[in-house]
Amino acid sequence: MERARKRPVGQREQPPAGPYEVRSAKPPETELELLVHGVGGTTPEKMLGDPRTVRVTGDDTAAVFRRAGDAGTGPDGSGAGGEAGRRHGREPGSGPVREAYVWCNLTSGDGSRALWLLLLPFMVVNLAHWMRPAAPDRPRVVRLYGLLVRLAALTLTVLLVAAACEVALDLVAWQCAGVQDCVRRHSWLGFLSPAASGWWSAPGRRLALAAALPVTLTGLLWYLSHRTWRAYESHRPLPSATGPAGDEQEPPGDDAGSAAHGSALVRAGFWYGRRLVARLRAAHTAAGLLTVAGAVTIPAVRFDHRPGGPAVLDVLGPLLAAALLVCGAAVVTVVCRRGRDERRLDQRLDRHVVRGLPLAALALLLLGLVYAGWSRPGWRSTGRLPGDPSFGALMPAQGVLVVALAVVAGYLHRRRPDPRAAMRGLGGPAVALLACALGGVISGGVAQRVSDWLDGTRALLTGPPVLLTWQASVIPPLLAVLLLLAAGLALHTARLARAERHRVRREHPGEPEDPSRTRAIAHARAMATLTDRAPLVVAVLTATTLVLGSVALAGALATRRTPEGAAHHTHHLVRAVAETSQALGSWLVGLGFLLFVTWGRRAYKDASARRTIGILWDVGTFWPRAAHPFAPPCYAERAVPDLTWRMATWTRRTGGRLVLSGHSQGSVLAAAAAWQLPPSVRGRVALLTYGSPLERLYGRWFPAHFGPPALAALHHDIDCWRNLYRRTDPIGGPVRVPDDTCPDVDHEPLRDPLAYGRTPDHPLPAPILGHSDYQSDPAFTRERARLLTRLRPEPPDRRPGTGPEPRDEAAGAPA
């Protein structure tokens, strides 16, 4: 036992230790390895290599596990149960105690979560917020970037609800219910038919009844956003003051205040976005309700504005429309006014906005339903529902927002050029454009499929708006471009594989040649390089989408302006191609929608299917909901506090040394957790990453948060860091820390396979591991032992230039 230290006479007694302060009188030093798995999920038994595991702390969603033989050391690893640990077969000096943090249930679980895939456009546009280039000296421009992304996200919500209104109000209640032949084909609409002369047969009342579908959709989105936030994102981070102090008006994502650290992930409030999510949820919910109210009210206002109409309704209609415009302006103001406040743990709520804005929109919706349901003799539903120009206004608005976003991103990239940044800093605008295109194609495809289902081939209905039909028609040429691109990438990969064969032969001199083995290794290396071609794929897809979207908009405008009688003068071949493309696109969207849901449900039941889409899904839900509140929940707002609390409390209780060991996406969580640690804990934590996408994916696509300055700052804060990777790994790669004054972070590429042919150590052919089983490589154990040796027995002195010692906000003690 360590001898107690005597306090000099006259020296004041030190206050009790804070929640993460290392105690001066600590128990004997211990060692711990905290494992964090990657995408696809796993079990604690596989992570720890033992069928007997026990949960140390956590719940059914995310928890920390140990081997049953190591559980005798106590949950805090303090050595209190060391004798029990020896009885279970663990001897001193056998390596660090291993713990596994299992977080896969945050993104997987039962099959019902496959419905989150329907929120894919919201998730994609939320990614665009985090893809901006780094610019610490341009806070106003950064604020403008975040504002444009939030406005683009708002248009997606309006587009989704407007598409639901198109299906329920226009196609079903207005067109099909108003045509007797269509009602005969769908008998469940009989009570809405004018021939029935029932109370619901009036057009306004049919619209009011059909509004239940888009209103339910809006309420469901609100409920899912609220429920998932409470379940996944309401966990408070470790109380610390690592971020700079300042007022609450910091622009979203502005890294000017954290220039010393290089990344905003170091800030105390980065993983707690309660205030912004609540504001955006209220604004988007109100926008959805106002969209439904406008779809119900505008047709009645137009009918009442005719000569000879009731004077009362002729006055009430414009007043209600003006109230809708005022409330819509309030929604836009709420979205524009405030971004993320990351510099401190902001636990306030703008209750007047969170409660007042949706309630005001709901009140206007109820007034609109009553107004539309008023008796209007002589009102008949013919043609399309008035309001078709709304889709024609949304698409150009989204185009203007994306172009403005590209201008801002290009300006930020020129201020601090990063040669490794994807698409020269234009990754964010490209992803925002893809999100808008995805929302438009889904909306147009679903509307076209419902129209075909209601009408068949009888031409009883006018159909959906022309723009939605043209949007569905661009799918076949888009797929053709993607097929050509895939063929080009396949040819490039085949050439690269042939070149790799010569390198593989040179790496194994003196060994018998095995052509099939050489081809397999070369093919694995060539396939791993496809990840680096992702910017090219996104660039081609974005350019094609922009061109085809412009063609669709021009075609819709030309069709709307062309007189009906002049249609037969159009060239027959052009008409045939357009109609074929529209019909094929409609069926492809319907088929793709079903495959989308089916594949998503299978992905959460089948591990192999989940790995296929796990990369993009886990990247998308890693980031907080900063632009769209209806995006799937951010699992990192639960995982990062879990890791920081575990590391801080363990080091406080034991004074030991800890290796944070992260694989694949787990390495990104490990880096984010290390940034959140106070300096007194960082001195006792080493970082071991393997198969890590920190630079290869995150550094290129999210340069403001994982670019070269950010990774260099992480190396400065966690100077005991080692990264392992293989050339056959399609995800992991070197981190390329731009710091020549510190030891290298990247290990030389590991051999894969471990042996080319049969050897005494590998009598059977060694497998090509690629992205898996890094711990089976001898270099893993060797580098982990070196990291533990490099860790200092006492917390390092505070580095110069880091500012005053941060204090614990909860206990008031120095960190």
UniProtKB/TrEMBL annotation:
Where does the sequence pass through the membrane?
144-164, 207-224, 282-303, 315-336, 357-374, 394-413, 425-447, 467-491, 534-558, 584-601
- Key word Membrane present: yes
Q: Which InterPro entries does the record associate with it? A: AB_hydrolase_fold (IPR029058)
Segments of this protein annotated with the region Disordered: 1-31, 66-93, 238-259, 735-815
Return the Gly residues bias intervals: 71-83
| Domain of life per record | Bacteria
* Keyword set, alphabetical order: Membrane, Transmembrane, Transmembrane helix
Basic and acidic residues bias: start-end ranges: 780-815
Q: What is this protein called?
A: Lipase family protein
Q: Which organism is it from?
A: Streptomyces argyrophylli
